[in-house]
Structure formats: structure tokens, C-alpha cells
Amino acid sequence: MRLRKRFYLVFVAILVLSLVLTSCDSIDISEDSSQVTIENEKPSAGGTLTMGSVEPKELNPLTVNSKSFLDASRLMFEPLAEYDGTLKLVPVIAQQWSFDQGTSKFTINLKNDLYWSDGGKITSSDVVFSLDTIKTSETSAFKDKLEHVYSYKAESENTITIVFDQAYANALDILTIPIIPEHVLKLNPNAVPPVSGPYKISNYEKLKQMELVPNDKWIRLGSVEANGTKPYIERISIQFINDLDAFSTAFQAKELDVLHTQSYDWEKYSELKDVKTYKYTSLYYDFIGFNYNNSIFQDKAVRKAMLTAINRRGIIDKYLLGNAVLTDVPVHPDSWLYDGKAANSSSSKVNATNLLEQAGFEDANNDKILERKYDDLLQTLKFTLLTNSENEFRVKAAEEIKKNLEEVGFSVDLKIVTFEEMKTAIATKQFDAVLTGYNLSPNQDLSFAFHSSQIVGGGNFMSYSNLDMDNNLYQAYISTNDNTRKEMYAKIQETFREEVPCISLFFRDSAVVVRDKVKGEISPDATNPYRGIQGWFISKDKR
């Protein structure tokens, strides 16, 4: 009876503890196991967040080409529209936009009653001034967005028209340009400008830092759709660091509270006890590109056999610590245009060998390299794989790829060169296959790399040509209808899986790393590392 009673009391104690554990947001158990602290802090205003940036020559985001400053400028300058987490354009300053039916004239209507942080109204004149600034700048990161613009004009205070050389989907990318204030920067390009974003500039010390505070005229305040709430963090200190390699050192030395890192070894920061890592899938797409002037790559069976033989998942796990998303297609896995089909994560020497045998390859002379008669010529599965020496990951991955392919009858000669030498080899088409990557645009156009019109003078360095691919890429390019674009991208992805124009490897993960004093919903994505920063807050006990 006593035993039964003792068992009952133990059971009740365990039940109570389990209810506590499952009902709390966070549990901190100290070394003294009898003390259990429950953490459930509500957001509140206050505190300082310190981040780093390369110092720009001027505080105009349209005339610089520094990624770290452009990231920081998202806190200050809003665009007409932005890409959301699915890479779909959503309105910000603009209310709506459309091509005039049957023409290349593009009309943009702005939202009413939007203001700069100094009280000046945001109008179409600011949009025209922004476009003029890009047009005359030699250093703007947004220069290519005006490539097909014929003219533009402010039709009224809230309406702008832009005439392109043709109506096409990528034209909408012009909406993502940050808009700057004409009434200040036209008079003084070096002025500290008023802004439209969640934070405004309160102090600027050249060569040292810039301080930001919440902007009470932020254009999204009160907008339910944009989750518009006044930022909780009361001060952001942007420290100017002009040595890119010093960002990591400064973070590890606790001089920064947040670090946006795209290095594949960013998991090293997780070893720091006071740090949390928030990863996201970037737009950086790694692949093996073929030179189709080499006859062995013209056979789809060879390309499929290579894809089947390479242990892509193993490369991700071994050399990227699992921080990449395997893909069969160059369409971002979070994109609204992705067809949702799971990537083939398996590799098989047997299946690869069968594909090659069915294509007529055999090892007739027992040298472990397969060959076949092709148009009265002896075709041998032998080629050179090129990659650049500065990228440690690529060198290791190339060695693994060589090993995988030689196990099924290929002979692969690795050629490790400098990045500049690799670029020259690609530009002159002096290569067999190359392990490289694209930092793809959020507009998701793929015609630059896979349409046959781009073989001469364009980005199709592989010399790939396929009529179905050409047609689908063209239809996707010219269509401004979402349903049509989605249909075309489904066909493009189907062709990729069937034809294997190149060997898709993965989209790399990147990360935003923050001190654990920073709380809230931290949700970076491929186009905005500081997405939702207005909801971040600093823990009260660490302000």
C-alpha cells in the first residue's frame, strides 16, 4: 500500500512538471535543478541594436553599390513595391500598376497621403527624381533596371508613366527601386536625407557611425497588410566597417549585435553561447554547366547519368553542413513559381551505369573509362571539370564529383584556376564542364542563361539550345499575367527535369545571426535579411 502511494505521488509530480514544460514558451533550468525559470517576455520599446555597414560615399542608396549599405538602407528607404517571401511583388509606396492594354506604356499609381520623415509629401516627382538619379549615376546597383526604359513622366501628383521598349514581366522589377526625396537631395546630394522607412537618421558621424531612431511617419504605420506597428527598438547604431573580413571579427568580439552572413560556414557562430542563428534559403544557385560544343554532353543520357551518379545530398551534408536546399531546377523553393515537386535526393551508381550502357557505352579495353562508337568516331567519357581556387567549398565539391563520376566510368580531370581565369574560360567557351553558380534575380528570369538567343553575346555560356525551352522562356518573359507565367514556369521546370540542361545542385542557405538579447519574430528571407524588424525588441534585462 505504501509502495502504491509513493508511486502515485511520483506520478503526480511528473505530470505537474510535464504540464509546466508544455505550457511555457521557454524554460531556463539552472545548475540547481530545483530552480526553474519561465521566460515569456512581451515586446516592449527600448534598447539599442548595433549593426555594421561599409560606409557609403553618400547616404543615397541609388548611387552606391555596397551590399551591406543597401541592406541597411532597407530600414530607411521604401520602394514602390517589394518582393515578399514568395518572391511575389506586393505594394509599398505604389497602390497599383499595369501596362496599358496592347502597349508598352506602364502606369503606376501611388498611395495617397504618404510622407517623408521631415513631413514632406511623397509624390510622383520623387519617383521621377529617383529614376533620373539612377540614369546619371555611374555606380548605381539599380542601373540594369532602366535598361529597357524609353521614357518616363509624372502625369499627376500620384501618377507616373514609364514607356519600355516592350511589355514584359521583368519590367515590373523597376518597382523595387528605393525612392529618394527630391526636395532635399536635389538641392544637396550630400545632405542627411529624410526617409520613408521604419527608421530615420538621428545622427551621422563620418568615418565612424550612423544612428537611427523610429520614424513616426513611416509609411506602413497603421497598415494591417504590412503588419505596420511602430518599431520597438529605440535606437539602431550602424558602425562603419570598411574591411569586409572584419565584420565577422567585430561580431565575435561583441561589437555588433546582428550579422548578415552568406559564408557557407556561418554555423561557427552557433558555438557562441549568447547567439542565435536564423537561416534562410538564398537566391544563390550552384550548378555544373556543360559546354555543348563537347559532343558527349549533347546526349541527354550522359547528362542524366551524371546527375544520377553525383551524391548531391552527400556534398551538401559533408561540405555545407547541411545548409543548402537540394534542387533539380533553378527556381527558388519558396517562390510562387516553383512547381512544388520534391527534388530527387537519391544517387545510384547502378542506375547511372544502366543509363550509360543503354546509350551504348562500354569499357572495351578494361581501362575503367567507358566509350562508344558515335558517327564513326570513338567517343570517350572523358572531360575536364573547371572551378575556381578561391572558393574552398567548390574545390572540395569538385573532388567529390570527380570521385562519384569515375566510379561509373567517367574520367574527370580537375582544373582549379583563379576566379578571373575561370571567367575568361567561360567567356571564351574554353572549358568542358564548370562548377559555378548564379546569384539569381528575384524577378526569376532564366532566359539570360538558357535561351538560345543568348548563346552569342549573352549569358548562355553553355551554348544550350532547345526549342521547347526557348518558347517557354520567351512566353514567361513577355507575359505580365501571373497565371500565364506560372503555367510557363511549370513547363520550364518539366523540361529541366527531363532534359537536364545543366546539373542543378542546390540553393545555398544564408543566415542572420543575432545576440540572444534580440527577441521577436526574426524571419529573414531571400530578398530582405531584416524582414519584420519593426517587431524585433531588446530584452529588458539586456538594454
CATH topology of the largest domain: D-Maltodextrin-Binding Protein, domain 2
Largest sheet: 7 strands, mixed
For the record, what CATH class of the largest domain applies?
Alpha Beta
Shape: globular
- Mean pLDDT value: 89
Estimated radius of gyration: 27 Å
The CATH homology group name of the largest domain: Periplasmic binding protein-like II
Tally of DSSP helical segments: 13
Which stretches are poorly predicted, pLDDT < 50 over at least 5 residues? 1-38
CATH architectural group of the largest domain? 3-Layer(aba) Sandwich
Overall number of strands: 23
- Proportion of beta-strand residues: 15-25%
Structure description:
The protein has 543 residues and is α+β, with helices and mostly antiparallel strands. The chain folds into two domains: 48-257 and 517-542, Periplasmic binding protein-like II (D-Maltodextrin-Binding Protein, domain 2, 3-Layer(aba) Sandwich); 283-508, Dipeptide-binding Protein, domain 3, CATH 3.10.105. It is built from 13 helices and 23 strands. The strands form seven sheets. Strands 13, 14, 15, 18, 19, 20 and 21 form a seven-stranded mixed β-sheet that branches. Strand 8 (149-156) and strand 9 (159-164) form a beta hairpin. Helix 6 runs antiparallel to helix 8 (349-358) and helix 12 (467-478) packs antiparallel against helix 13. 37% of the residues are buried.
